[in-house]
Amino acid sequence: MISSNSQSKVAQFRQPTYEIDPVFVNRWSPRSFSEKEVPEEVLLSLFEAARWAPSAFNVQPWRFIIARSQEAREQFHSFIGEFNLTWCKKAPAFALIISKVTSEHGDNRSHAFDTGAAWGSLSLEAVHKGLITHPMTGIDFDKAREVLQIPDDYAINALVAIGYQGEKDALPEALQQREQPSPRRPLEESIFEGSFGQPLK
């Protein structure tokens, strides 16, 4: 459960225009991770939340390759980009999100869309459990496929670091300045009505 103190810190940077559940604004992507291990039942509850995401024809194209032992994490470190490795090395768990690009119906054009819904559910459940997540695409996709023996009919979507939030001061100085929730553009800039580029009436 996210603390009221954390919520008040997020509120300095994020204010929704319309009333929504606080979990949506309290979810952000810190880079400072504590080395504290995540209990199995807590970690797996995130994937339980992802399990119930919607998908076309209920195909459920998402799969998660997780790393939570020291040996497995080091294997993942081998394909993480140098910049990302500077801050995510302490994360106690990783999940590589992949999605099956085919189904019994042929090419699955919604595999990434549906898997995005599963990732969204995972990230929100993490907030409920007092955890942080930080997704990244700064990885060597080809090496990840080779190291983890991922079949060609699965797309690699992103790698997510999972754990408890650490202190901002533990980050390199340049990253400390960025360790805060990011804002969002005004809602009306994301919605068109009737056709592309037409503002709400």
From TrEMBL:
Protein known as: Nitroreductase family protein
Originating species: Ectobacillus funiculus
Family classification: Belongs to the nitroreductase family.
Chain positions covered by the region annotation Disordered: 171-201
Pfam annotation, one family: Nitroreductase
InterPro entries reported for this sequence: Nitroreductase, Nitroreductase-like
Domain Nitroreductase: residue ranges: 26-80, 86-164
Keywords for the protein's UniProt record, in alphabetical order: Oxidoreductase
